[in-house]
Write a structure and sequence with these properties.
Number of strands: 15
Structural class: mainly beta
Oligomer: single chain
Number of helices: 2
Helix content: 10-25%
Largest sheet: 8 strands, mixed
Length: 195
């Protein structure tokens, strides 16, 4: 019998009367496992000096493929223009956000950032400024560094966004919560008043 496969991941499909379904099922599960691994963030640490544009990070069992997602903690931030990221010696790839190379000082010291590899560049998904201040008004909450870590619960090699980040605005005395959301593949935080 002829073997047919799915379009995107070449998973094996069963033809009527196929008796080798158990072999194909095991093969498919292995392939699905590989692809699902790409969906969960790998947590890395980059300790490259802030003034060095060529950032380096390592992770066990990492394979660079378009669509892979990583989270990187930059212990020294970045003050260099033309920043690149080289993960596991796969080659320096430019760091982009919103279609352009990131500017200097976008990456804060001890900041944790999510990136997706688009096949050419590392695309930053959450250029959040870590600050103790809330922007004026009810939007643009910038949670503190500790609040960001509290909200990003790290379990093994996965990151879960959990709970509320709250902050009292010194201008109006109201308490706001930071609500994470994804819009066009970009992680952003909006402030909502806690009632």
């Amino acid at each position: 019998m002829a073997l047919s496969t799915t379009t995107n991941y070449s998973l094996r499909k069963h033809d009527a009367g196929d008796l080798n379904w158990d072999v194909d099922m095991n093969w498919n599960m292995t392939e699905i496992d590989k692809k699902l691994k790409l969906l969960f963030a790998n947590f890395l640490t980059c300790s490259t000096a802030a003034g060095t544009a060529a950032k380096v990070a390592s992770f066990t069992n990492f394979a660079l493929e378009a669509g892979c997602l990583i989270a990187v903690k930059f212990t020294n931030g970045n003050s260099a223009s033309g920043a690149t990221l080289n993960v596991n010696s796969t080659g320096a790839k430019a760091i982009y956000y919103n279609g352009s190379a990131i500017s200097t000082n976008v990456i804060a010291t001890n900041g944790v950032y999510l990136f997706i590899y688009d096949g050419t560049n590392w695309v930053m998904l959450n250029p959040i400024t870590l600050s103790d201040a809330i922007a004026d008004g009810e939007t643009g909450l910038a949670p503190t560094q500790n609040a960001v870590y509290d909200a990003l619960i790290l379990k093994a090699d996965k990151i879960y966004v959990d709970g509320l980040l709250t902050k009292q605005d010194t201008n109006d005395g109201k308490t706001y919560k930071a609500v994470p959301s994804f819009t066009d593949g970009v992680l952003s935080w909006t402030a909502e008043e806690v009632v």
